[in-house]
Design goal:
mainly beta; Immunoglobulin-like; five-stranded antiparallel sheet
Amino acid sequence: MLFAGAVCTVRSSKGEEVLLGSNFTFSCIFNKQCTKLIFRNGTQIKYKKKTKRIFRNGTQIKYKKKNISSDVSVDIENITEFSTFSCRCEENPEPCGLDIKPGYPPDIPQNLTCVQKMNSHNVSCIWTTGRGTIIDTTCQLRVHGDLGYESIMNSTGFCHSTFPIKSSIMSQLVVLLNVSNTLGSKTSVKPSMPEIVNVSCSSRWCNLHTDNHSMSLVEIQYSPVNGIWDTFQTNVKSRLNISSLHPDTTYNFQIRRKINHTVGLWSDWSQPEQKKTKEEAPDKALDVWYLQELKPPQSKSKCLRIFWKELNISDAKGKIQRYNISVQEQKGKRNSITAVPPSRNQSICCSNCSVSVSAVNSEGQSPVKIIQLRFPGLVTGLLSHRPLNNHSIALFWPKLDIAGTEYVVHWYPVGNIEGIQWIRVVDTTAHITGMQPQECYQCAVTALRSSGPKMATIKGISSWQSAPEQGPVPQLGWKESESLSVTWSEIPQKKIRGCLKKYTVYLIDKLKGDIHNFSVVHPKRQYVISGLSPRQCYNLWVTAWTDAGEGPRGSDLPFCTPSDSERMLSLVILAGGGVLLACLILLCICQFSSVHKRFLCCCQCLLPIIPDPANSKCAKTYADDQSEMKFYLDQCDSSVNEEPDNVEVEEVPYPRICTYIKSFSQESSSSDATQITRITDITEDYISTHGAISGGEEEDEYEEEERSLNEFELFPSTHSPFLEPLVLTGGKLTLDVVKIDCSEFLDCT
């Protein structure tokens, strides 16, 4: 602001707005003689009085001073803030002055962004000058040579302008930007955002097809999905070629444009366009290794499991569809196997064979990797290790004891051979990386030699471990009065937190309070405790150990030992249960008819002896009227299976109180010779001399005798294997169909 007065006038050598940090001179011209004063922001400052000098031919000459106005000035250095400079006479308080504003000239306009409002013909643009100018700055935007649209830059360094367009869709717009103030002016041109119309790719290159534009400089950026962007510039206008790409890889592409290298601004980046390159056949062989595994029971050959590493994206050059495995035995037999991803191992059972493995995608097959399957000789106690950090260890072995031209170091988590990894080294030291802390691994080093491989193993290594997080759960195996067998469960793998070394079994006597402990080396999970006291109660628990220390106790197992009497009682109960079970089994077996018949025949000797009817009292009483009868004596020899000879049977009518049949063997010539017969069967019918059952009244009598006979049956079952149906023909009778009624005979004796 300028303060004008009658006494003086002021001026600045660089105007009211000066560059921040610059130097300038502030001057006051007084119109009358007075005591002159100069102030800065109300504070008086010293000044220097200007004097006039006159020279003639380079020599200063004297002149006569007149009573006219004189000038005073102040040199201001490095101005950094708004300041007010003023002058006045000491005799007259009326001042004159000037406000000085430091600031910056505008930079080239940057970061232009234009947005078309929805359903509107207006476009709003915003841009910056790079930094705030502090002083007043004017912004101007011009579109396609139309009239300019002006605005004032705000204090934060942003310019804003809105202008109309003829269509509702933004087309190719070339925007001219101008930013100016008293310290300078900058102009720039920004092209509209380009568009990628189409992308065509092979396995190694892609062509970008863009919209028509008049810009001569194009910048392209591209990257694999989630990868790092690569950028380059080209002068080609409509078709842009990008080479040195990887097969079977998805890329993102963007472009932007500019008038030339020196004029204008870069346009906004185009919308990203995504395209995948085509596949190629893999050009790298698989890395293959093998381990010996247990032989299946049905196989006579030794078995190995071969493993291979998946090819990385750049080596696979496409999606691997399958793995071809060919087994060539020494005898010339070849066997082909196919494995489908994600499988990367296969069991092979053979002797003296070689295996070839290759990967196949849609474009072809990788080079074949051939490996000779040879069972390595085992070497123990050679490997040592040292943890490097939580995820890696260093492995060492002596070269002389396990020499080779190349070494294969493999490792896998204990119990998870599918997670095997391996590396190939030529030194006697290997760094194993990618290990999980608190995980137990098994490692091995195989020396590859022409005479045969040699393998050294080391079990139970970990990059970092701690004490187990959980204890085992004990269970009773068997218990006696003075000893006990205890087993315990495995700890879940995630709770072990390292490599198990041993278990400790703790036993406390509840009566005495004594604690005993027993050490069991891992992986054994059973222990027999002896020397216990009968009829005594104990408590037992188990803990697990790693190299980092002992874990917590598992669940308690209380128990009491039995007394001697209890032990005898348990043995008796056990024996009785065994006998009962045997009887039940025997009873079930006897339900079979064939077993039943043979059993009864073998036990015939245990049946009661039937007296000879010829010697009974009834027989002697009626001896005069008896008739001759012939009988056949069956010795019931179970081994005799032949049909017996026919015999003649003669019925003798006896009183009802004692009716029987007397038979004489055809082989005995003496009628006085009688033999004691064993009853092999009992029947409720009487036998006729003509081979038919009597009818009429005799049948009624027989039915009454049948009812009385039921009371004297020796075998109540009607399905005895010795009972056969009666068959009589022509007066001839075989022994297996003879049925004797002894009910009245028993009454007589």
